[in-house]
Amino acid sequence: PSADDLADEMEDVDFDDEGGEEPDAEAWETEDEGVEDGMEAQDDSEVTFCLHSASVFCVSLDPKTNTLAVTGGEDDKAFVWRVSDGELLFECSGHKDSVTCAGFSHDSVFVATGDMSGLIKVWRVDAKEEVWSFEVGDLEWMEWHPQAHVLLAGTADGNSWMWKIPSGDCKTFQGPACPATCGRILPDGKRAVVGYEDGTMRIWDLKQGTSLHVLKGQDGHQDPLTCVASNQDGSLIMTGSVDCHAKLVNSATGKVVCVFKMESVAPKAPAGEGEEAESNSVESLGFCNVMPLAAVGYLDGTLAIYDLSTQSLRHKCQHESGIVQLLWEESSAVVYTCSLDGAVRLWDARSGKMISEYRGHSAEILDFAVNKDASIVVTTSGDHQAKVFCVQRPDR
């Protein structure tokens, strides 16, 4: 609120009210809580969206115009709002648990929101009305089909579900009896790759409902899968796991092409009584569209850039704290990371150098999205806020 707004509010306060209660402490909290005394809280953002009242877990931009964002949070709420000014378009109401998944269909006609309990709702964006809802088991992930009004979701019982929207025609893909922890529809729109908690990975034929390839045992991971990605033509898949390995897989044959292992930094002193040994895992990964490079982000703060043609580590970019997610720019070798220290960073994958850093959150960033022309980044955070950062660079 500006000074004028505050002045207006003050006029409404009745100071003669003797029996007034103590002012609500929360209403008097200052903006820069958690910032050291005398330090100005740095905020590089253009727009802040403040309607969530708890951690904001997820964000997506509408693919067609990149002018709308949908965010979901721990307050059981999801909102569709305008990126240019943070103006609320509508609330996706009716969830009864934390909204952990949200996204727009390929043509921005529909927006889907899913909560942890497994309630998924789809809204028609222009009419701002709910057109479909369905309840599955505990929701792990959700994704729209790249070319059709089809929604895919994975649940804690190991199933993946596919629906036509808004008719609701449904198909299920039965995985092992453990959570389907991550999934991705391949660019051809005919197959999906799903990773599971037992370390296995399956490539599904979406039309037949059959599994084309199963990677398990030595070919799979030793620990739960955390993320999957595919390159632009879908010929290569990459899987990441709690076991700190990233595997490159040929999607046509289901064969592992190579394994990227993060060699541990000098062993830490053994954990003392009650201390946790420092854990590490692959948190996010992705392929570069313009060069044969892949990026892997780790919980220990390492961003590794791998050269796919030589299957070797090209650069290691160190962050002070864990990487939550990474995204590549659509048409350059620039990779974006968001981390637990609340900053967004841009890295040049060719040189391994950091290009720029943006701050504004007072807690960890939990999710982020980059628009098509790589001019803005939208972030969500544990500080209950979503922010829009302008990252346009002079050299474009």
Automatic annotation (TrEMBL):
Residue ranges of domain Anaphase-promoting complex subunit 4-like WD40 in the record: 287-365
SUPFAM superfamilies: WD40 repeat-like
Keywords: Cytoplasm, Repeat, WD repeat
WD repeats mapped onto the chain: 49-91, 92-133, 187-214, 316-357, 358-396
Keyword Kinase in annotation: no
Location of region: Disordered: 1-43
SMART domains, sorted: WD40
Keyword Repeat in annotation: yes
InterPro entries associated with the record: Apc4-like_WD40_dom, WD40/YVTN_repeat-like_dom_sf, WD40_repeat_CS, WD40_repeat_dom_sf, WD40_rpt, WD_repeat_multifunction
Cellular component annotations (GO), alphabetically ordered: cytosol
Localization: Cytoplasm
Cited CDD domains: WD40 (cd00200)
Function: Plays a role in angiogenesis and cell migration. In smooth muscle cell migration, may act through the RhoA pathway.
Name recorded for this polypeptide: Angio-associated migratory cell protein
Organism listed in the record: Cariama cristata
